[in-house]
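hey so i finaly got around to running the thing on Methyltransferase from Sorghum bicolor. pasting the sequence first so u can double check i didnt mess up the copy paste, my clipboard has been acting weird all day
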Amino acid sequence: MAFGHTRLDVRRAPQSSYFSCSTTTVAVFVALCLVAVWMASSMLVTPTEFSPFQPKVRPLPPQDSPPDTGSLTSAGQDDGIREMERDVPVDPPPVTQQLPPVTDSMDSEDQQEDVKEQVRKPDRQRTSEQPEVFPDGSQAELFNETTTERGPWQTKAAQSNKDAKEQTLTSSSPVSFTWVLCNVDAGTDYIPCLDNTEAIKKLRSTKHYEHRERHCPEKPPTCLVPLPEGYRNRIRWPKSRDQIWYNNVPHTKLVEYKGHQNWVKVSGEYLIFPGGGTQFKHGALHYIDFIQEAKKDVAWGKRSRVVLDVGCGVASFGGYLFDRDVITMSFAPKDEHEAQVQFALERGIPAISAVMGTKRLPFSSRVFDVVHCARCRVPWHIEGGKLLLELDRLLRPGGYFVWSATPVYQKLPEDVEIWQAMSALTSSMCWKMVNKVKDRVNRVGIAIYRKPTDNSCYEARSETNPPLCGEYDDPDAAWNISLGACMHKLPVDPTIRGSQWPELWPLRLEKPPYWLRGSEAGVYGKPAPEDFQADYEHWKRVVSNSYMNGLGIDWSSVRNVMDMKAVYAGFAAALRNLKVWVMNVVPIDSPDTLPIIYERGLFGLYHDWCESFSTYPRTYDLLHANHLFSKVKKRCELLPVIVEVDRVLRPEGRLIVRDNIETISEVENIVKSLHWEVHMSYSQDKEGLLFVQKTTWRPNETEDKL
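ok and heres what it spat out for the 3d tokens, dont ask me to read them lol
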């Protein structure tokens, strides 16, 4: 058989064996010399030449879909903090998993299964973005809060009349977890602190809506809330403002009660929201503009940025105020108006389940620019005006109360009686009625009152009823504090919060409040204005360098966000240009920074994370926990807290945890047992970041009913 030659063989003459040997010898000699030089030079390198903040990242091994079982043993699992392998480059980018976008609807069941399979087994890709941002040098203190129980950073736990005892708990994760579905009357809508039927049965009275208030179980539940049958990924904003999937919130009582008022209607597989309400049947936007026409100084989106909507219904008022660059904290009780707050949150509108009963609302004093009530069914005038005095506590000096109800514009005997009582009460509170006008389109009337900006009217009253609160009555004490029938004096010192109106929006977002003093230390130890600015700059870097690109989040699918430990709300401020809203939570055992959050034109509330949050299941798209869990587990067990996270987060929703590596490992073990997808587990020195996504998995077993 003949063998042909390549062109290379033809062009090159054969090399002698002697020449080959000589070349090899020279090459080996040169290589040995280079190795010797390298070894000598490497001994001169000092440890300080290596950055202590190099990210330590290792790709997570592919995982098959978890079996459909009610328990999962964590023994033998990875410890959750991925150390960098030797063969990984010195400066690797974060490892992420890119998820396929989820559309608002699927054409077939097969397509839904395809998407679910992609979510279960996403491709792991490296990105070319900058590494994860952790504080270094001057920024390192952003992980460490100063411990202050007095002065400007007093905690709500210190102010509350509820004794929360600190306890030392074991930090090791359980070896295994066994999960069952909750077996409660509330079913798929279970809110542990609002559906505690045993505690409600023992109430001596329900006259003041005590049965709608929080009554948390002594032992937080560790069962999982089931999904409604036919649940699917929620429709994206802004389309969700107009329609949601019926199967996600399968309730029709409001359709029967309020359909004629354009609250909500059923249309095939959708619930439709025409944008109306009891007082604005012809649309919320007309009503919103009518309010500003009645009082130009309201100035939506400039002077008035943060609104409280009492008895919000399905929150169409707050939903359409977004069009005027206004954010609204809407609330209503979990009552016979079935699922009204759940409708709001499914639509992508902020709301909480709460009632004006016997306790103060969980907000700071003097923080809302406008308070609104449209047929909110609150008897403001009774019992010395105790409930209206709570609004006085919350309303900013110079702020407006907008009241739209039948006593304003109807002449029935009951309405006339209520109007006269309200007129006397508001006058004694020094609220000035600046306008009373009727809307010819909606055929309703509104009365607008303005809260005073100084104490001159209080001091000039002939009768001190309602009385002024005592000097030891802290207006900012708001967690589990009983209502009082008194008014708090207004600040007169121009350097005190409440003595001046905030900067116009959006300037107030970035500028430190005028009342933050450089002589006082902030949460992280710097002078307060510098602390505020450093926090904001830090979160802008983290969001820009990591969260926007490095985590592979499809932000168009994110609408409802919660920062579980917000501090100055720098994280929320950094998300300003996205179509999201952020519920900023200030834990009761953290420094009281909630007034700062409102001053910059954002909103939030106080909460104790050893208890359930006052929201329906499956209502948030993304939860952010920055050094929260390591602090919470000093007071209560971590497992029920993560179960609460599972309850609040919707299927396919995401959780970002930044904490010490021990806590990161504990959280990762728990969420793995819940069959969540771990998209990133990242460590640097003793700090870690965990990015996980909830799946639709639920256990097969149901707990025994007591």
